[in-house]
Amino acid sequence: MLDPLLTFSDALVSRVAGSGAGLVCVYPGSSAQRTATLWRPGVLVTSEQGLPPDTAVPTVLPNGSHVQAHLAGRDSGTNVAVLRLEFDGPALPAPVAPHSGGLALMLGAAADGSPTARLGLVHRVGPAWDSLHGGRIDQLISLDARLSGQDEGGPVLDAAGGLLGMSTLGPRRCVLVIPAATVDRVLLPLLADGQVPRGWLGLGLQPVSIPTGWQAAAGLDAGLMVINLATLGPAEQAGVLPGDILLAVDGAAAPHMRAMAGALGSHAAGMDVTLRLLRGGTPIELPVLAAVRPAA
Question: To bridge 77 with a disulfide, which of 13, 34, 133, 292 should be the other Cys (CB 3.0-4.6 Å)?
């Protein structure tokens, strides 16, 4: 009779070995190390956070050879960075969408290019969400697992070997998965233009509580106060003033920064939006032509 634990262990070893050829180790800093995934022939995907602006990135292939990858584009909204590399490897597993939970296998690359693996549980699955930098993430997937910085950016597989997406460290070092659908959606604009266009108003905002006497007129008890404006930016040219309290964008309430970021996604770039503001206790509306957010 087969030992189920031994069978399970052998299956994990086989899966890691079968995926290792698509993993590379990248050195985005002088001593930093993280994992990049060969998402398609000649194209690497890794975590954008903490990545320096250098265009040439030292890379260690699975066979241990050292080459240079070149930064093609980055998007802080979805935490995806794309690098070009003259290297072909095996195809990734078929993406899984949507995901409902279970075991998750996180793969990474060690300093010599050999594969690493971590096993965890899907802690939470939720609907699509907006990041603080305005990126739309197709599904919330958090893992009950530990992830080191050097493994961040590697692929995450489900129990059947399907591709969940890319691993990343979220707030308070919680482990999140950027879904494969999200990576695929931003890949083409990053390869073509180096960035994903998103709406930009040129506003510096601070969450505030709305004074009790103004709440009836505002229809909210919290908003975002304008503390500074980009010189000749869209908001300044439209007549927004420091001290105004932003209440809504195109009718969608913006009581906090995440809601504001979601209202200015890629759909808003180059489009007219209507801001509802509270100025001296009086609600006003101003049309603003949203520009494309400047590259970081």
Answer: 133
* pLDDT tens digits, 53-78: 878 888 888 888 888 899 999 998 89
The closest alpha carbon to 224, from 250, 197, 253, belongs to 253
pTM: 0.81
SS3 10: helix
Q: Provide the CA 169 distance to its chain's centre, in angstroms.
A: 10
For tokens 């975002």, what's the residue?
A: 224
Q: Residue type at 85?
A: L
Instruction: Indicate the class that CATH gives domain 4-193.
Output: mainly beta
How far is residue 24's CA from residue 45's CA, in Å, rounded to a whole number?
Answer: 10
Architecture of domain 199-292: Roll (2.30)
How many angstroms separate the Cα of 67 from the Cα of each of 23, 43, 58, 243? 14, 14, 6, 52
